[in-house]
Amino acid sequence: MDRITAARVFISIAERGSMIAAAEALDMSRAMVTRYLAEMEAWAGARLLHRSTRRLSLTDAGELTLARCRRMLEVADDMAVAAGADADTPQGLLRITCSQALAQAQLLGAVGEYLQRYPRTSVDLQMSNRAVNLIEERIDLALRVTNTLEPNLIARQLGVCDSVVCAAPSYLAQHGTPQLPQDLASHNCLTYTYFGKSLWQFSDAGGAALSVPVSGNLSANEDFILLTAVEQGAGIALQPRYSAAPLIGQGKLVALLPGYTPLSMGIYGIYTSRQHMSPALRAMLDLLLTRFESEQRRGLS
Q: What is the pLDDT of residue 267?
């Protein structure tokens, strides 16, 4: 964990007497403030705050730690000034996590452009679908496709993920083609472990919403697994358009239910703090936003 940031968080808590007030002042989630405080107490080896229903106050160890944190930040700020013009130049390692499907379809091209544009940076890309703890795993940026962000997360919406219901011609020849969303209930629908919940949501041409319960003999936590199974004729799947579009264009998959639009999801960049965002992270977010906006205009997302 970043001890400089932990020191800033602890000073803010001490000065404001509240973790909520510190979170607002630092533009940081309350959960992150709590974790930084826990790290600072672990580092100091002592309880630093008396907690009451009205206000937090410093213990004797907290008073001593506060003074040390202020001295440490003075040194840190002096180093930042010494950095001069390079302080705003994207540089250093950026650790990013996202799903394999999103990385293959959207992120790899952005990373290549980013590294060419900012030669003093490097990227460590972690493939994972689980919601990681950014601080504990030292992740700078997590990309997620979701409509249910936790309220304590700091996130920037980068784009919109449109979806398509699709199947292979071989499956449709054997089982028939659904004409209405309700027809999906009688088909083998392959679902995404986290998103599916056995309920696919659509809107019709008039904008009316409807939900259809589906089931099947395969679920997975990665889009590319379901996409491969669908291509092999295993069933019907609801896939991100950016993953399915190439196979649909090649005739290997067929887009179904043209009169109905699956529920779109947001593509978010999640990070720990706006106030202490590094130039490298800011540059990556700006680049991703530009690329997603461009693809949205071309109808690829």
A: 93
